[in-house]
Specification:
- The protein is built from eleven helices and twelve strands.
- By secondary structure, the chain is an alpha/beta fold.
- An eight-stranded parallel beta barrel has the order 3-4-5-8-9-10-11-12, surrounded by four helices.
- Helix 3 runs parallel beside helix 4 and helix 8 crosses helix 9.
- 43% of the residues are buried.
């Protein structure tokens, strides 16, 4: 029997097991105008995702400096009835250098959150977001101010659900104390290369715990509070599926070979094995794959159907961290 947690439902739309991250929509992070080619590229990515059952899309107001949302909005306008069939989430809270005269910084002030959401909706050409995530922890955040901003957005019908990104359990707990709307998503970097989410638990009271920066207890807190965990960077930039990166850890090569053997045994792609490793975790992790290339998206087609054994999961984990459990 499989105990894999089922994804959440957002206003009767079940979340797909995998999310398409749209960070690469819109081309470069510059001020150049959006071309028809960029819109075609974005549409091909969306259609490919829909073809393999992905109907949950992840954006942020800063992605390609707003162009990602513009392109996605153009795609929405071209495909009739698509808005009602998909889940759209975006993020706010980062101000890039060059956006104004200030430094690059985090900003979760009420004024900035409200202004950001209006900009997101305008660029996407829609009336509401399914989910809004606070992109990064702001050291100058006032929890009560954030709570008031989110309540206004919810009451106005501009955002239906809320979540966070890159936050630990205590940061979420503090925000939730001052918010009338629940936080239902937490997006964190997790992959076979970034195994801190596992290490935080298994190295408790041991020397390796001192080197781990992943906040202990976050996985358990999110499970207990029914907060959907999403993994950004789940494919580790292709490190386990053929891409060689200069200076990568020596364990990567051995793990890549192990992934390839497991994929060949099942007749699936290496990408499916890498994602299935994440998705086996009892927290029901949703990988957010960040590619715009149709072939890379298609390579993830079978991930939700792959059921790794406990032995295989631990074999991959041990290979990646370079030591026995």
């Amino acid at each position: 029997m499989s105990y894999r947690q089922l994804p959440l439902h957002y206003h009767q739309i079940p979340a797909s097991p995998i999310v398409l991250g749209c960070m690469r929509f819109g081309g470069e992070w510059d001020g150049q105008p959006i071309t028809n080619d960029l819109v075609v590229e974005g549409r091909q990515a969306v259609e490919t995702a829909l073809e393999i059952g992905i109907h949950h899309f992840d954006l942020a107001d800063i992605y390609t400096r707003g162009k990602a949302e513009h392109v996605f909005g153009r795609v929405l306008s071209e495909i009739g009835g698509l808005r009602e069939q998909i889940i759209i989430q975006s993020k706010c809270g980062i101000r890039l250098a060059g956006e104004d005269e200030g430094p690059q910084r985090y900003d979760t002030s009420e004024a900035h959150i409200l202004k950001s959401v209006d900009g997101i909706l305008t660029r996407l050409g829609i009336d509401y977001l399914d989910i809004l995530l606070l992109h990064r922890p702001d050291p100058l955040a006032h929890p009560q101010e954030i709570g008031e901003a989110l309540a206004k957005l919810h009451q106005a019908g501009k955002v239906r659900h809320f979540g966070v990104s890159n936050m630990g359990s205590e940061q979420i707990r503090l925000l939730q104390m001052y918010s009338r709307v629940p936080f239902i998503v937490n997006q964190l970097e997790m992959s076979l290369d970034k195994i801190g989410f596992v290490e935080a638990g298994v190295t408790v009271n041991r020397e390796p715990a001192k080197q781990n920066v992943f906040p202990y207890g976050t996985m358990e807190f999110c499970q207990a509070e029914h907060i959907q965990l999403q993994a950004w960077g789940p494919l580790a930039q292709g490190r386990f599926t053929g891409r060689v990166v200069e200076g990568q850890r020596p364990e990567i090569k051995a793990t890549s070979e192990l992934v390839a053997r497991m994929a060949a045994k099942r007749g699936v792609t290496p990408e499916s094995i890498v994602l299935a490793w994440l998705m086996k975790h009892p927290a029901g992790i949703q990988p957010v794959i960040g590619s715009i290339r149709p072939e890379r998206i298609l390579a993830c087609r079978d991930a939700a159907q792959v059921e790794l054994t406990r032995d295989e999961w631990y074999e991959l984990y041990s290979s990646s961290c370079g030591r026995r459990m």
